[in-house]
Specification:
The protein is of the alpha+beta class and 312 residues long. It has 10 helices and 14 strands. It has helices spanning 125-133, 136-146, 162-172, 178-207, 215-227, 236-242, 247-258, 262-280, 285-291, 297-311; strands spanning 2-4, 8-9, 25-31, 34-43, 46-55, 59-65, 69-77, 80-84, 88-92, 96-102, 105-111, 114-123, 153-154, 158-159. Strands 2, 3, 4, 5, 7, 10, 12, 13 and 14 form a 9-stranded antiparallel beta sheet that branches. A hairpin with a 2-residue loop joins β4 (34-43) and β5.
């Protein structure tokens, strides 16, 4: 994947230096639309491109794929719209990610004025095999890749939850080198692809729910909780006020739709997040309790221990 026309190389501004991953090759170039900070990491099993656009006005820029390419795209700062050859327009908002196939050729990237950041991860076919076996849409994208189709293919954008952000942060902050770095990045990419697959599966499960007047709103509430569960924020009062519903109506329909109360669902997701953080971050249980919104640490520990017992 290559942005063109190529810009004029210039020095990276001091304010952008902290955003450069220690393992990446970085360049900073001036273009008609503004500037581009490009970070790359090339390996035979995957390629990583981190693009931070600083645009002075709305613009269309172009990127070229010499061969058909399957891509996991993550929008750190959006919105960004792509016009994919043989498919059409696809837009990612801030905090969304998706998976698509780009045919060989030239594609458009539509940017407003401001600052935008995209991460493109290009895994090889072997990394995608198991993933495609579990989903027909992934399988179609992989078939497009292997037949060098001229028709683009784009899957549904999904919101990145705290797990996705955590995996990304671990990858970007990785201090390993040599073979250890290759393993860490490979593991991170596999996790991101799997989290995207799970998000697609979850969205499909929601489509199977019995429809009611409130179903769409309830699914939106549920997705907000899944992004970053917080026991103090995600309450009946909060959602009732946000969606202009009575607490009694919300309580009844949430239980009927998801077969557990709102509080039970939020508590369960908080415990899942706590378990994830316990296994993936160097934090004490007290710090994790703060992260998921528990002021009562003893209450958190009691719920967490019960969750771990039931999960084992």
């Amino acid at each position: 994947m290559e942005i063109f026309p190529k810009g004029t190389p210039t020095d990276v501004p001091e304010r952008l230096m902290p955003f450069i991953a220690g393992w990446a090759t970085a360049s900073y170039t001036k273009h008609d639309f503004g500037h581009l900070l490009l970070q790359t990491f090339m390996y035979k099993r995957y390629r990583i491109y981190i693009q931070r656009f600083i645009t002075e006005q709305a613009a269309i820029t172009y990127f070229r794929c010499p061969v058909g390419t399957a891509v996991l795209q993550l929008a750190i700062m959006g919105p960004v719209s792509s016009n994919i050859k043989g498919h059409g327009e696809s837009t990612l908002q801030t905090g969304q990610f998706n998976f698509f196939y780009l045919p060989a050729g030239i594609h458009e990237l539509h940017l407003g004025a401001g600052e935008f950041e995209l991460i493109h991860i290009v895994p090889d076919g072997l990394m995608l095999d198991e993933l495609s076996a579990s989903r027909e849409d992934m399988k179609r994208a992989l078939t497009h890749l292997r037949t060098a189709s001229e028709e683009g293919c784009c899957l549904t954008p999904r919101q990145m939850n705290y797990r996705v952000h955590d995996v990304l942060a671990s990858m970007l902050q990785c201090k390993e080198s040599g073979g250890n770095l290759l393993v860490e990045l490979s593991t991170g990419i596999s996790n991101l692809l799997n989290l995207y697959r799970k998000s697609l599966n979850d969205a499909e499960c929601m489509k199977q729910l019995r429809a009611s007047y409130y179903t769409g709103t309830l699914i939106t509430m549920r997705e907000e909780i899944l992004l970053n569960p917080h026991i103090q924020q995600h309450t009946l009062a909060y959602f009732a006020r946000k969606y202009n519903m009575s607490q009694s109506t919300l309580k009844r329909y949430f239980k009927e739709t998801f077969h557990q109360t709102l509080h039970e669902f939020v508590r369960e997701e908080c415990m899942k997040k706590a378990a994830w953080m316990r296994g993936n971050a160097s934090l004490s249980l007290e710090d994790i309790a703060d992260e998921v919104g528990y002021a009562d640490k003893s209450g958190f520990l009691k719920s967490y221990k019960k969750y771990r017992r039931n999960a084992s």
